[in-house]
From TrEMBL:
Protein name: Glutathione S-transferase
InterPro entries in alphabetical order: Glutathione-S-Trfase_C_sf (IPR036282), Glutathione_S-Trfase_N (IPR004045), GST_Omega/HSP26 (IPR050983), Thioredoxin-like_sf (IPR036249)
Lineage of the species this protein comes from: Bacteria, Pseudomonadati, Pseudomonadota, Gammaproteobacteria, Vibrionales
A GO term from the CC aspect: cytoplasm
Domain of life: Bacteria
Length: 216
């Protein structure tokens, strides 16, 4: 067990789910610690001055605290599903993920908050999210996944966030023009990889027992 990395995680956090998906796709067994950010464990505070999830501690003691970096670390060690493309498309994948994180996620967070407050500004934030979603919908109109006809890094990196967007106003999304995106979400969430990533774990602060996040 000491040879396995430790992942501090939170199931409801899309960043943490992105990290989990990457680890499962890479078949990287991990000691998982499900935490509550309302009462952050002291162990996390020692590791990071601003403890958030995901937070990974490698056996060497190295810390990785970005979800995409966790995916890349795992897949660069083992990529059995060929999610990393060695061609120029790999660069395109990373560029699109970075653009998604910079342009889509900030408006997604505001959209969720505005909807909970029944704020009319939710339409503005939704419209801003749609600017990115239109691009994804156009790509998916010609193929089943974002880069090619099978899931790659970018599909799993974007899935937790776009799925979250689709659930903010569920009925609106189901009748929206984003039908190919809807089918893409459904295909991916029905896979064993996604089911494994969504496995619930007891809160680590209560048990102090590491759970093993294993591959499918």
């Amino acid at each position: 067990m000491d040879s396995l990395p430790i992942l501090y995680s939170l199931q409801r956090c899309p960043y943490a789910m992105r990290a989990r998906l990457g680890l499962i796709c890479a078949q990287q067994s991990t000691r998982l610690r499900e935490v509550s950010l309302k009462r952050v464990p002291d162990e996390m505070r020692v590791i990071s001055s601003s403890p958030t999830v995901p937070l990974m501690v490698l056996p060497s003691g190295e810390i990785i605290n970005e979800s995409l970096d966790i995916m890349l670390w795992a897949l660069q060690h083992n990529d059995p599903h060929h999610l990393l493309d060695e061609s120029s498309k790999h660069v395109t994948q990373l560029e699109l993920v970075h653009r998604h994180d910079a342009k889509f996620i900030p408006f997604l967070e505001r959209y969720k908050q505005a909807t909970r407050r029944k704020d009319f500004s939710k339409y503005y934030f939704r419209d801003e999210c749609e600017k990115f979603l239109v691009e994804i919908e156009q790509v998916l109109s010609g193929q089943t996944c974002i880069v090619k006809d099978k899931p790659c890094l970018i599909d799993y990196a974007l899935l937790p966030f776009i799925r979250q967007f689709s659930r903010v106003e569920r009925q609106w999304f189901l009748s929206s023009p984003y039908q190919q995106t809807h089918h893409w979400i459904n295909r991916l969430v029905q896979t064993p990889i996604y089911a494994k990533a969504m496995t619930p774990f007891p809160e680590w602060q209560n048990t102090r027992e590491d759970q093993i996040l294993s591959h499918v």
